[in-house]
Structures are given as structure tokens and as C-alpha cells.
Amino acid sequence: MAYSFPEEVLEYVFAFLSSDKDRNAVSLVCKSWYEIERWCRRRIFIGNCYAVSPQIVIRRFPEVSAVKIKGKPHFADFNLVPEGWGAYLYPWISAMARSYPWLEEIKLKRMVVTDESLELISKSFKNFKVLVLSSCEGFTTDGLASIAANCRNLRELDLKESEVEDLSGHWLSHFPDNFTSLVSLNMSCLGSEVSFSALERLVSRCPNLKTLRLNRAVPVEKLPSLLRRAPQLVEFGTGAYSAEIRTDIFSNLVEAFSGCKHLKSLSGFWDVVPAYLPAMYNVCSRITSLNLSYATVQSPDLVELISQCPNLKCLWVLDYIEDAGLKALSSYCKDLQELRVFPSDPYGAEPNVSLTEQGLVTVSAGCPKLQSVLYFCRQMSNAALIAIARNRPNLIRFRLCIIEPQAPDYLTLEPLDTGFGAIVEHCKQLRRLSLSGLLTDRVFEYIGTHAEKLEMLSIAFAGDSDLGLHYVLSGCESLRKLEIRDCPFGDKALLANAAKLETMRSLWMSSCSVSYGACKLLGQKMPRLNVEVIDERGPPDSRPETCPVEKLYVYRTVAGPRVDKPDFVWTMDEDAALRLS
Amino acid sequence: MRSIMGDYEETELRLGLPGAGGGGNEGETSRNNSGKRGFSETVDLKLNLNSNNSDGNQVEDMKQKNLIQASTDSAKPPSKAQVVGWPPVRSFRKNVLAVQKNTTATDDKSGGSSTAFVKVSVDGAPYLRKVDLKMYQSYQQLYDALSKMFSSFTIGNCGSQGLKDFMNESKLIDLLNGSDCVPTYEDKDGDWMLVGDVPWEMFVDACKRLRIMKGSEAIGLAPRTIERCKNRC
To answer: Which family does it belong to (chain B) (predicted)?
Structure first.
């Protein structure tokens, strides 16, 4: 006798499950739960567009309204993935256009999006609402024009940090006059000037507009006009924040900002003239997020601004803030959760600002809620790292970039193994870690042993031998993404830990010592992995088997070897895999 | 005499990874950890004539692909060879900062930007380079930098003596300054001029690109031109 809830009841219960992890667990309970769950999953997340095919997704989940897809590996951000590698959106759109006519949301990261895809999106999904293109490329402002013209119910258009071929600003004028549903617009990555009157009218007729991030071409004098039309704004990004210093511009700005009682997030600030920063002071007390990472303003001006923001939770800033500014930050902003400090002169040989490890230590001491750090600096010591680890065991993300590769502890000249070791030992919730500086195999022993929750690890110019890689792959139970460049890691560790790779999303290794022979072996041994050799020197067959490959990208997949490879990518043991499928 | 491309492979630019001298083979490479090993020590343009270790060459070929540009100058501290993708700053961020740096520079200085990159072509070299003329204060500094930059290419003869000469910097400068080399530049009017006639600052302002003429083309020039060049260098 089998008691069971009616399907509708189960479906109702499952509707409360939003996390994919939970839904995946539910679908493993039994066949009927699998069936019920797959018919009611509305939101899909595909962490690697090549791990699965559009057909497989659509077959399993027939009624989807929101899709999030990620394409290229993270190191593509730093030009390590050659142009033309892949991650094309079009096949996904063309499949979904047929099967998901009611699709509402598409969020993409590091994918190649063409104008054709954008046009197809705009014409295929009648209720399309949300388009987020994060670090994407391959499209022009013409594609944006299609979206603007055809998506009558569009709520969100966020271009994040995409590379858009900017033909003109005319796309904005394609939003019809009766289009009023916009909630969020982020065009900060675009270069061209849009028609300001079209922008004004758009802002005026969209009463639900909460996020508006302008591009650099919008001058500061024009901001008040927009702010006055959208006093309900919660997130605002300025354009170039500079003009000749005139009291009327200043007072207009002050007035306009004062009218925005709900502003929580500010960004933009290209070409800042410090004299105009005080125009925002009236809103600063409510500000929780501040992106000053384009603001080439000196520390005293930054401190002035930050000291007005006691509720600041998230700060992105250039290293102009210096240690002194970070000290001020640590005393004024006790709610700080995330800090990112970017380098103003990453290629200069000598430091151009007085920002050292001390700034980070101070913030770690003074900001009890700090959990996410990205920090570029030119010197570091084990003592500092140990202090940070002890101060902030609640760290979740710790990404440290010491600009000079293999820089040792500047006080003792030793490797930074013990410092990073302390980080993984004390910060038990650490999910993401980026290493830099002089590091031996020992740091990987610490990481493998202690970093139980670590999901993503980035390594560059580190380690002595395969042992380092072995420590990581044989430990780190939660590891999902591992990216390595310029490390002496080779075949032994990789082959000995082949099984681990199926528990991860992906592994990237470039300029390491993995031989072509080992890649072939790995491809043969592990049919459910795509072992991609990326080598611009020509077919790996034309070189000895012991020759190391330029780049290796290994990822688990149920879709088999991909069919859209460029001529510099080879999937190992493709024949065997094709025979199996 | 080997072809230019043959020599090019032989004389790799070394991006010394820990124990990377052996390169290419699987297995451990141990490393001496003591002391600071600054990146600038491991990345210099010292020509490392590897013995016939084809694997080593493959590794080093890849490594040198990663280097974009390096220049040295005796007055300023040496700027680092730029490795692809390091430091990990995204390109849109780099571009923004570069533009802003130039604009702030023009605010400070009276006219002119803070960099003056020009293309440099050396006859016989497989590709061009770019140098920032503002990094140098004199013609000699420029020649020093250029000779280092182009030292991997066969200049003049290439017998075993010629290869040994590669290692010897002063010989390189001689080669560059020697009678079969004529440094020329294109000025703002599009005319090709002999390098060295005008004061350095004026040259930096006027120069749009550089071309080091060699061998037979140089021979074709008026002997007085070559004489002037020899006397100046």
C-alpha cells in the first residue's frame, strides 16, 4: 500500500524550493518526484554551457521561465582564452525560442552573443522581461535596438561589463513611447552618447525605475534633470563626474540628490572633479554600496566622502585610497562586508601610492562583518596574513593579488605559505581564494587539508612540483573550479586524481607542464570529461607526446565533445567518446 | 648560416619558472627557495642558448609567447616585461585608467601626454616592436634599449662568432651603431629623417615611427649619410 500526496500537493510544496541544490536532491528521491519536479522547475542555472546541451535541458525541463548560463572560463577575463574559443549563445536561443515561448529571463556570463541572437530573443519571447549580459561580447548597439524596440514588457536591461561594439547611441531611442515597464537599466559599459532627450523621456515615463547606471558620455550637468524625474531611484550610476567648477551646477546637483530619498547604491564617477563630490553628501547616510573604482581621486577626498557613509556595506575603490584611507574606512564603516581595492597603475614598476598590506590588516581589524576581499597591492607579509586570518575568521572570499609574481614576504623574504595557511585554517567558511606571491608546495598542503568549504581556487606562478597540485585535488572536498597558470604542475598529479575532476565543474591549466600524452590518457580514462587541449602552435600530434600543452581545459559534461570547436582546440579521445554516446 | 627564424627559436627569452631550465619533462622540478627571487631576475632578455633539448624549447617557446614587451632604461627603474593577463586586471578597467592617466597627465604638464609610443621596425626582424620614447633621456639610451629589444635577431653575420656576439652587449651596440645600420624616423610631416640631427626632446616630439635600416638598403644610401651615422653613434 503506497500512500502518497497527490501530485498537485507535491508540486505546491516544491514551489517553495528555490535552490537548485534542493531541487536536485528532491528529484533524486524517486521517479515520480523526479517527474513532478522537472515539470515545475521554472529557473535553470547552467554553470558551464558545454556541460549540457540545449536539447537535454529542454527535454528534462519543459516549462522554464528563467535561464542563467555561463560560458567561457574565468581566465578569459584576462585574455588567456583565445578569441573564437566558443561559448556561443545562438544555439541556446534558437532551441529555446521553439520550446520556451514564455521565457522571461536570460542572464548570461562570458558568452558570445550576436545581434542575431538578440533579435531572435526580442521576437521569440512575448513576455520577455530580464536580460543581463555580464562580461559578454559579440554584439553591437544594433542588437540592443532590437531588444528596445520589441520587448514590450522589458523590466531589466543590464549590460554589466560587456564588450559592445558601439555603433551609435541611437538604440535607446528605439524604446516605444508607450513603453513604461523599465525597472533597471545599466548601460555603463557603452561609449556612445545616447540622445539625452530620449533618455529623459524614458526615465520620466517609467515610474518603477529603480536602477539607472549611465555611461561616461552623460555629463554631470545633465544629472539633475534625470534625478528629478526619478526620485524613487535606489541605484544610480553617474557618467563623467566632471565639469568646470560652477556654483549653479553644484547646487542643482545637491538639490537633485537630496530629492532621492531611496538611494542606496552609487557608481560611475569617471573623470571625477573632487569639488563635485560633496554634492552627494546628503544621500551618503543611506548609501550601502559605493563603486569608486574609476574615480581617480586622492585619499583625502575619498576619506571625506566615505566618512559620510556609516552604513556602507560594499566599497570598490582604487588604491588611491592608500593605507590612511583604509584606516578611516575601518573606523567609519563598521558595517562593511565587501572591499575591493583595484590598482591604479598595475604595470608601473614602482608603487605610485602608499597602499600596503597594512591597509588590509587595519580593515580586517576594524570591520567585524568583512567577508569578501579583493585586494591588489605590492607587498605582503606572513605576519599580515596571519593577522587578517585571526581578525576575520568569517571571511568567505579572499582574493589577494600581489602585483609582482612570486614576491616573497617582504620582511622575512620567506614564501607566503604560512600566511595563506593561516587564512584557510582560520576562515573555515572560505569559499573562494586567489593566491599570489612566492608560494611553495607547502601552501597547497595547508589548503588541501583545511579548506573544506573552498569552491573556487585561483593559482598563478606558484608551487614547486606535482605534489602541490596533488594536495589540492586530493583534499578540498568542496572544490568546484580550479584555475591555474604558470605553475610547474604536470602529469602525475592530474592523472592520479582524475576521478576528482568529475566532482568539479572545471579545471583550467595554462603554461604548466602537462604533457599531450597525459591529456590523451586523461581523455581516454574519463569519458564523461571533455579534455580540451587549447594550443595555437598547431596540432599537438605534430609534437612529441611529452611536449607540454599550452592550455588545458577539463570539464565534466553529459553532452559529449562539443561540435563548435575552433581549429586550435582538440578534445582528447573524441572518437571513443562519440562511440560511447 | 641558419635562417633568421631558425635562430629565433634557438634563442628563447627566458621566463624562468622555478627550475624551469629543464622544462618540458614530466615530474618534479625542485627549487631553491632561499632569498628573494624577484620577477625581474627571472625575466630578463638574456639569451639562453639551450642545448638541443626540444622539449625545453617547446616550453620556452610558449613562455616567450606570454611576454608582450619589455624595455629597460638606465635612468628609470626597469619596467617589467608584461606577461599576458598579469596582473589580473580586466581590459575595460585597464583602458579606463590609461585614458584617465593621460588626461590627468595633460592637466599637470603643459601640453603633450605622458607617453610617446612609436613603432620600431628593424630590417630583417620578423615583427615590429613599440617603444615609449618618453622613457629615455638621450639617443644613446634609446639605442641601448633597441639593441636589447632586437638582440634575438641576427644582425649582421651569424656564424658561431656572431652568436657569441649576441651575448656581448657592447658588441650589440656596435652592431647597431655600426656602419651597416642607419636609424631613421618618420616625422610629423611624413618625411623620413636621419635620427640624431635634432635635440632629443624635439626628436621625441616629432617622431612618429622608427626604422632601423640595415644591410643592402643602407648601403644604397649616400656614403656621407653612413659616415655621419658612424661618427654620431
So the answer is: Belongs to the Aux/IAA family.
B217 has a pLDDT exceeding 80: no
Residue B60 to chain A, least CA–CA distance (Å): 10
| C-alpha atoms less than 13 angstroms from C-alpha of A366 in its C-beta half-sphere | 18
Q: Are A254 and A276 in contact (CB under 8 A)?
A: no
Taking CB atoms and an 8 Å limit, are A548 and B77 in contact across chains?
no
Q: What is the mean pLDDT of residues A183-197?
A: 94
The answer to whether B140 contacts chain A (CB < 8 Å) is no
CA A465 to chain centre: 30
Cβ-defined contacts of B27-32 (< 8 Å, 24+): B27/A465, B27/A466, B27/A490, B27/A491, B27/A492, B28/A464, B28/A465, B28/A466, B28/A467, B28/A488, B29/A464, B29/A465, B29/A488, B29/A513, B30/A464, B30/A465, B31/A440, B31/A464
* Conformational region of residue A569, where left means phi above 0, alpha means psi within -120 to 50, and beta covers everything else: beta
CA distances from A492 to A505, A513, A552, A574, B10 (A): 21, 10, 15, 22, 29
B34 DSSP β-pair partners: none
Residue A39 host element (H or E): helix A31-40
CA distance B143 to B192: 18
Q: At what angle do helices A441-450 and A466-474 cross, to 10 degrees?
A: 0
DSSP, collapsed to helix, strand or coil, labels residue B206 as helix
Look at A466 and B28 and tell me if their CB atoms are within 8 Å.
Answer: yes
Give the count of beta carbons closer than 10 Å to the beta carbon of residue A207.
13
Q: What are phi and psi of A378, to 5 degrees?
A: -110, -5
User: What CA–CA distance (Å, rounded) separates A317 from A508?
Assistant: 29
Q: Check residue B92 and give its pLDDT.
A: 81
Instruction: Tell whether B79 is within 8 A of chain A (Cβ).
Output: yes
Q: Which three cell numbers stand for residue B136?
A: 629615455
Count the Cβ atoms, other than its own, within 10 Å of residue A306. 25
Burial of B108 (0-12, 13-18, 19+ CB in 10 A): exposed
Does residue B214 have a pLDDT over 50?
Answer: yes
Q: What angle do CA B178, B124, B50 make, to 5 degrees?
A: 90
CA dist., res. B187 & res. B211, Å (int) = 12
Taking the CA atoms of residue A479, residue A484, residue A490 and residue A491 in that order, the dihedral angle to the nearest 10 degrees is 40
Question: How does residue A308 score in pLDDT terms, banded at 50, 70 and 90?
Answer: very high
Q: Which pTM was predicted?
A: 0.76
Grid look-up 583545511 returns A450
Asked which of A419-433, A484-498, B16-30, B166-180 is least confident by mean pLDDT, the reply is B16-30
- Nearest to A501, CA basis, from A520, A482, A521: A482
CA distance A314 to A292: 11
Res A578: pLDDT: 60
Nearest Cβ partner for B26 among A405, A464, A491: A491
- pLDDT score recorded for residue B46: 38
Secondary structure (3-state) at B193: strand
Cross-chain Cβ contact A376/B87 below 8 Å: yes
> Which residues have C-beta within 8 Å of that of residue A219, sequence separation ≥ 6?
A239, A240, A243
Asked whether B206 and B188 are in contact (CB, 8 A), the reply is yes
* Pairwise CA distance, residues A441 & A465, whole Å: 7
- Top mean pLDDT of A375-379, B59-63, B97-101 is at A375-379
pLDDT at B45 over 90: no
